[in-house]
């Protein structure tokens, strides 16, 4: 299994990028959003990857964050969602958007992706809602350490590591952990954090926790 690719971009196409790793070119399929964020030809790049294996096909998919990669894996587990549909959902919403939509049960947001009908969107939300807290917590994971010398054949020496998660991804992870430590169920904690992030995307950890607690407080 190829879990990470690091090298130099040879060219970018509509749905994939060719990455040269020490003379070997890897075709890596990416969502529109991921492709738009990649540098141009000749530039160094590093992507998390997932390999799709079928009898007549081997396809490598690339992601800038572990959360994006995990959502791709989970989306593919839903009946009716193949690699193309998963890329469409991630390209439309991004990993954070998918987390919020599923945590909040917002299947209309999922349906906004090209080729996704209402039944499939509802199935995605219903089947993956319990998975949202774990993937949201994963958003704060650090980038991997530099490879050991034995890994050199697969890694360009001066290629960068995969992009670090944005600052509020760590805040999101910490807020989820704090709420669960206070006794809230993972699902309700994730829903509250997703709601707050939708309104104030730049909220830090204390602000996220305070706002989420206000949402979770008993009404009346």
Structure explained in plain terms:
- The chain has 220 residues and is of the alpha+beta class.
- The chain has three domains: 4-64, OB fold (Dihydrolipoamide Acetyltransferase, E2P) (Beta Barrel); 66-134, DNA polymerase, domain 1 (Orthogonal Bundle); 166-216, Helicase, Ruva Protein, domain 3 (Orthogonal Bundle), CATH 1.10.8.
- The chain is 47% helix and 18% strand.
- It contains nine helices and five strands; from the N terminus they run βββαββαααααααα.
- It has helices at residues 32-37, 66-76, 83-104, 107-111, 118-128, 132-138, 167-181, 186-199, 205-216, and strands spanning 4-12, 16-21, 24-29, 44-54, 57-63.
- It has a five-stranded mixed beta barrel with strand order 1-2-3-5-4.
- Helix 2 (66-76) packs across helix 3 (83-104) and helix 3 crosses helix 6 (132-138).
- It is globular and about 60 Å long.
- Mean pLDDT is 84; it is low at 142-165.
Any key phrases for this structure?
47% helix; 5 strands; DNA-binding; DNA damage; NA-bd_OB-fold; 3 domains; 220 residues; 9 helices; OB fold (Dihydrolipoamide Acetyltransferase, E2P); five-stranded mixed barrel; helicase activity; alpha+beta; helicase; DNA polymerase, domain 1; Helicase, Ruva Protein, domain 3
- β-sheet strand percentage: 15-25%
In total, the number of domains comes to 3
Secondary structure category: alpha+beta
Name the CATH superfamily classification of the largest domain.
5' to 3' exonuclease, C-terminal subdomain
Overall geometry: globular
Q: Tell me, rounded to a whole number, the average pLDDT.
A: 84
> Under CATH, the topology of the largest domain is which?
DNA polymerase, domain 1
Within the largest sheet, what's the order of strands?
1-2-3-5-4
Order of helices and strands: EEEHEEHHHHHHHH
What is the number of E strands?
5
CATH class of the largest domain, anyone?
A: Mainly Alpha
Q: Helical region count?
A: 9
Helix content class: 40-55%
């Amino acid at each position: 299994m190829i879990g990470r690719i690091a090298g130099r971009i040879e060219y970018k196409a509509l749905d994939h990028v060719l990455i040269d790793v020490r003379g070997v070119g890897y075709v890596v399929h990416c969502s529109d959003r991921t492709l738009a964020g990649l540098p141009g030809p000749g530039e160094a790049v590093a992507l998390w990857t997932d390999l799709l294996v079928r009898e007549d096909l081997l396809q490598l998919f690339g992601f800038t964050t572990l959360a994006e990669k995990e959502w791709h894996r989970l989306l593919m587990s839903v009946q009716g969602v193949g690699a193309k549909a998963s890329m469409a959902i991630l390209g439309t919403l991004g990993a954070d958007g998918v987390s919020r939509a599923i945590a909040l049960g917002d299947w209309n947001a999922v349906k906004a992706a090209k080729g996704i009908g209402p039944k499939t969107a509802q199935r995605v939300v219903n089947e993956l809602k319990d998975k949202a807290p774990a993937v949201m917590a994963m958003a704060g994971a650090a980038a991997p350490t530099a490879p050991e010398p034995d890994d050199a054949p697969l890694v360009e020496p001066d290629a960068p590591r995969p992009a670090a998660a944005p600052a509020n991804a760590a805040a999101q992870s910490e807020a989820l952990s704090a709420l669960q430590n206070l006794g809230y169920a993972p699902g309700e904690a994730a829903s509250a954090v997703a709601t707050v992030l939708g309104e104030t995307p730049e909220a830090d950890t204390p602000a996220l926790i305070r706002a989420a607690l206000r949402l979770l407080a008993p009404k009346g």
